[in-house]
Amino acid sequence: MRTPFFLILDAIIFIDVSGCQWRLLPKEYPKWQTVYYYFRRWGAMDAFAEIEDSLVEAVRLRRGESPQPTIGAIDSESSRSALPRSQKGIDGNKKVKGVKRNIITDKDGDILEASTTPANIHDSKSAYALLAMLVVAFPWIKRIYADRGYRGNFIEKARHDFEIDVEITHSNYSGQFVPAKKRWVVERTFAWLENFRRLCRNYEETTESANEMLLLIF
């Protein structure tokens, strides 16, 4: 009897949320070897990204919004790696040895595109590749809000190559926390990641696998 694909997907999400090891997957799920096989296979097929895109469109329609967003927000965060053999780099600014998660969200904070790189890769370099993926899945995006880390040539390249305006929004430095205008949603999305124990640190050997775990927060 073939194992239902939904049950396999549910098992993968359980791993992401609970943070347990593959071999400790509860007995009500299929064998961990089967679940891991499909995790790797679906990841290689970009299936998680396709599911993410479809769900974002469905959620936006349910909210009474256009299924195609025109505005987004971009940001990154560095996460320490827990495995000595995993792909990693050192974020000299934040003093973190691990990976860097780069995401673009819509105005509601739902992830449109995501990439995971070693932490030493500069934000602007990762952002350019992220925009290249974004315009394929969401070609109606016209404006992206970002912090000061994305200043410089990236703004001109985004306008010239993708016809996307990158607007830099400044944080408040008065001593009292004030959410960054129009960019706070992407920061809130990073806070949501704390609900997924597999994402509190990076437990994946490759950045590809780490990014697949990130996309599972749908």
Q: Sheet bearing the most strands, described? A: 6 strands, mixed
Question: What is the subunit arrangement here?
Answer: single chain
Structural class: alpha/beta
Q: What is the number of helices? A: 8
Helix content: 40-55%
Low confidence ranges: none
Please state the average pLDDT score: 91
Radius of gyration equals 18 Å
Which overall shape is indicated by the principal axes computed on the Cα atoms? globular
Strand element count: 6
Query: Separation of termini?
Result: 28 Å
Order of helices and strands: HHHEEEEHEHEHHH
Strand percentage lies at 15-25%
Please tell me about this protein's structure.
By secondary structure, the chain is of the alpha/beta class. The protein is about 40% helix and about 20% strand. The protein is built from 8 helices and 6 strands. The chain has helices spanning about 5-20, 30-45, 45-60, 125-135, 155-160, 185-190, 195-200, 205-215; strands at about 70-80, 90, 95-105, 110-120, 145, 165-170. Strands 1, 2, 3, 4, 5 and 6 form a 6-stranded mixed sheet that branches. α5 links the parallel β5 and β6 (about 165-170). α1 crosses α2 (about 30-45) and α4 (about 125-135) runs parallel beside α5 (about 155-160). The chain is globular and about 55 Å long.
